[in-house]
Amino acid sequence: MTDEPLSTRWSFQDFKMFYDAKFGRKKAPQSENGEVPHTAVSNGSSSGMTANGNGYVTDRPAMAIYEQYRNQDRSSTHSNGVLSNGSEEKPQKSLLPPFESVEMRNLAESLSRDIIRGSPDVKWESIKGLENAKRLLKEAVVMPIKYPKYFTGLLSPWKGILLFGPPGTGKTMLAKAVATECNTTFFNISASSVVSKWRGDSEKLVKVLFELARHHAPSTIFLDEIDAIISQRGEARSEHEASRRLKTELLIQMDGLMRTEELVFVLAATNLPWELDAAMLRRLEKRILVPLPEPEARRAMFGELLPSQPDEDELPYDLLVERTEGYSGSDIRLLCKETAMQPLRRLMAVLETRQDVVPDDELPKVGPIRYEDIEAALKNTRPSAHLHAHRYEKFNDDYGSQILE
């Protein structure tokens, strides 16, 4: 007995017609015998819809379209493309592009649940330092989107950008700031989003990802820890066939993206740039070093995380800047947290001596930060990203994008 073909999803217009006919909004087209047809054609094949006696749709794939139509109908009343307030209605873009098969559409739905859509709301000002990296990103991504007239032909924008550097230096923050500044759709992708245990699904997920990005263009695909997805290939390495297919599909999609005029940018971040495949390095045309914070950036971080109080002595920021050479942005945040925890520890020791629980409105105020608190925090918090600093500098000299004055 052969398997029955899988039912495809109804299109929005087909379901709207069924919904209007079911609840008496609009008369549906009838067949010769006067019955309302219960099948519709979508993606070139026939599909069906089932409903129980109360009129509720029981087909799970069609419930999403049902909710979309119901919410859209509740939000505004319209007639011939004009809203009730007299203004013209702006057509709403569909969440998913048309796919050639139900399988690809289902993969797109599962992938859409794992990604972040919309603006991440990260400003350039919230990132301290990294002026060179910001300038290169603005040149590669921000300016082509704001002024597309100038970036045509030979000056077409760079589609692949690699952010590399020690961990905790702000690579993810820079990618989110680019998406916020350009007001693009942000696809936050990790290895778990595009790797599947089923044979052939991983490369299909990669293809669906780029189709979604083109559909929502201008968009930014952020591949975090890309070295886990596309490390170096070679016969001497023990590599699974599925991994090679995934890498090949990603390279093909990247190559196709570079040959089009669509504003879809791929931002990749890694802490191990020397592990990347040479073919991927070629497609990531801009390779930007995100270094450890400089003294000016470290001072700005300390001033924001540990601000001096008006009725207290100013903290020794110069000492903190001098003693934190080689610290990353994450290390500095941990150092400030450990420093602010010292006065609270002294207060907790006093409160623990009391037998009863102090009400919230009677809790004493946390004391000021002392010099010995800073010394204790410096002893307990050590840098975590300074060991391979020379390797990043060498990779930047060999492959990195420099600023030409």
UniProtKB/TrEMBL annotation:
Residues 40-54, 77-86 have a biased composition (Polar residues). Its main location: cytoplasm. GO terms for cellular component: microtubule; spindle pole. InterPro entries: AAA+_ATPase, AAA_lid_3, ATPase_AAA_core, MT-severing_AAA_ATPase, P-loop_NTPase. Coiled coil: none annotated. Residues 26-54, 74-94 are annotated as: Disordered. Residues 157-294 form the AAA+ ATPase domain. It is found in: Cytoplasm, Cytoskeleton, Spindle pole. Keywords: ATP-binding, Cytoplasm, Cytoskeleton, Isomerase, Microtubule, Nucleotide-binding. One of its GO terms (molecular function) is ATP binding. Gene3D superfamilies: 1.10.8.60, P-loop containing nucleotide triphosphate hydrolases. SMART domains: AAA. This is Putative Katanin p60 ATPase-containing subunit.
